[in-house]
Each structure stands twice: as structure tokens, then as C-alpha cells.
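Ticket #4471: structure output looks truncated?

Reporter: J.K.
Steps to reproduce: submitted the chain below (151 residues) through the standard prediction queue, then opened the result file.
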Amino acid sequence: MEFQNERQIADRAKQILGSKLQSRANSFKQHVNGSGAAVKDVEVVTGVRRYTKNGNTKSYFNSLSIKMGKHGFIQNFGVDTQRKGGTRKRKRPKSISYNFKSHYFKLKAVPFINESIEQSKVIPFVLENVMKVRTEDFFLETRNILTRQSH
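Returned output as attached by the reporter:
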């Protein structure tokens, strides 16, 4: 597929990485934190800048980011820490409070983000296509400058 500009490349890269991340995140159990966000609520966001010069508007693909709740990143990188002790209070179904001691906590890393990036092959896709579009733009700009100078 030939891309005309970097906005199209960004949209396709977002689709490729998003579908791979979503399929990997769906392998986790449904876990919801207090805010209602789940690991499965992963989103890919692109950053494309628009520049206007001499009436021509060009788009430049700047970034491809992954957005999800912090527990998704914790699941990806794992945890190896000491949890603090404290007191918990509950009012329903009946009022109760209890203390708990500090304890060691280890969560094995499940590197689904890196695996998704590698399996989707989004990095080579972006590099190849952005290079093609920018090379074409460079040659067009150079040709336009040379034709203006020769007149």
C-alpha cells in the first residue's frame, strides 16, 4: 500500500499496534481498579504535527504512544517490593477494622507490551514508510527549488 502522507502512516501504525496489544491484553483476567479502568482498556495514541509553509500543509509523524491504566504497566514490568503495613476499615456489610503487617510482595513480569510491539512489526513498518514519504517530499522540494532558480 502506498501512503500519500505521514498522517496515513500514523493511522495504520495505530491500527496495527492497537489490535496486537488488545489481543495480548485480552489474555489477562478481567481486573478492574477503583476508577473502573481495566488492563484490557489499552489504547494507542499517535502524535502528528502539521506545519504550513507557503500555503502547503504537511503532516509529520512524531510519536506512537501506549495509554492504559498504571496496573497494566505494573503487570508488564513486574513488582519486587516490600508492602507497608497499616489499618483497613470497612463499613459494609458491617463496620469492621483490622491491622495488617508489612510484607514482601513479588509479581512476575509479563512483558506483553514489548512482545506486542515486536510481533506487530510496527517499528520496521513506520521506519520504511516514513522514509519513503520523506524521500519523495525531499526530491519534490529540491526539484521545485531548482526549477524556481532556473526561471
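Triage note (M.O.): checked the attachment and the full C-alpha cell line is present. The helical segments are 6-25, 70-77, 112-120, 122-150.
Status: closed, working as intended.
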